[in-house]
Amino acid sequence: MIQIKVASVDDVLIIQKIGRETFLETFQERNTAEDMQEYLAERFSDLQVHNELKNVESIFYIAWDQEDPIGYLKLNVGQAQTEFKLEDHIEIERIYVYASHYGKQVGQMLFFKALETAKNLRVPTIWLGVWEENARAISFYKKNGFEEFDKHTFKLGSDEQIDILMKRAVV
């Protein structure tokens, strides 16, 4: 049975492991090894993950299959948001799930946790950025009511990529 539990600073190693491994699973085929290594070293360093987990404006949840961590959700409010930093918005920065658990509703459960958190915080708008080449994720978000509203540049190592920005109302 899959459970979603809030993460704490004590979960640094779990978040690092899931983050690195799922990012590699998802994106290594379409990016250079150098860009991937640079991104992973920067975004999933001990200090970076520790600081993110410590930030009171970021909320992490870990998905567990029995004793095994299989994915996580990172939400940002206020100044922790990567882009808009509007008080009436909450950002889904990451929904990362191991490929071994695709099709088992883990991503959907994490998304529902994001909606529940937004409702509890009385935030009316939820938004995210997704790589324009990540068709699987774009399809998932559209299925869950997100609509495109803008684009921005996402830097992966030395490669500048385009993220589609999507949002939906929290209802």
UniProtKB/TrEMBL annotation:
Q: Which InterPro entries match?
A: Acyl_CoA_acyltransferase (IPR016181), Bact_Acetyltransf (IPR050832), GNAT_dom (IPR000182)
What's in the keyword line of the UniProt record? Acyltransferase, Transferase
Say if the entry is tagged with keyword Acyltransferase.
Answer: yes
Q: Which domain of life is it from?
A: Bacteria
Q: Which PROSITE patterns match?
A: GNAT
Sequence ranges assigned to domain N-acetyltransferase in this UniProt record: 2-171
Q: How is this protein named in the record?
A: GNAT family N-acetyltransferase
Organism from which the protein derives: Sphingobacterium daejeonense
